[in-house]
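=== Per-residue structure ===
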Amino acid sequence: MVDLNEKKQWLKWLLAYGPFQRREILWILDYLLHHDNILANIKIVEHADATTRGLVLMPNQSSEDALTLYLNGHLFHDPDQIFHEVRFNWKQPLFLECPLPKSWELPEYLAVLEDNPYRRWNDNLTEGTCEEVDLFIENQEKASERHHLIEKIDAALDANNREAFDDFSKQLLELDKK
């Protein structure tokens, strides 16, 4: 669960730097920023269209598709209708999506991003992606273990401990063979 202050920081950042062309989007974001009770029930997710109550705010679009509420399979584009839905049903979870360019490179976004319970991110991973992740983790563990052994070798040299030096050097050679 994301802290309310982190959500506020993200909304402030989004209001300052978000490339939204429709002013109604900015009004809704500002409204959310100033209403803690509503903001507490908002989850920032990807694929909000897959939820029972999702709001998608598209940057760099002036069309009606820039602001879309997905409500139990129905789509709404009218800003007034969307605002009233958010305001009157504030106790219900609202899944908010703002697909910004290069969003995975934005720490402000990643700090508030939550898993979408209606479309989990790991449900769509290919076996190849899983293998890549496993290989990456193995390489990171090996690099960490290697670094740790080198530190132990250095400490053994500093302590003039030949037996520890030989032992750690042997372990390092075995690790490098893997």
Observations:
- The longest helix spans residues 127-158.
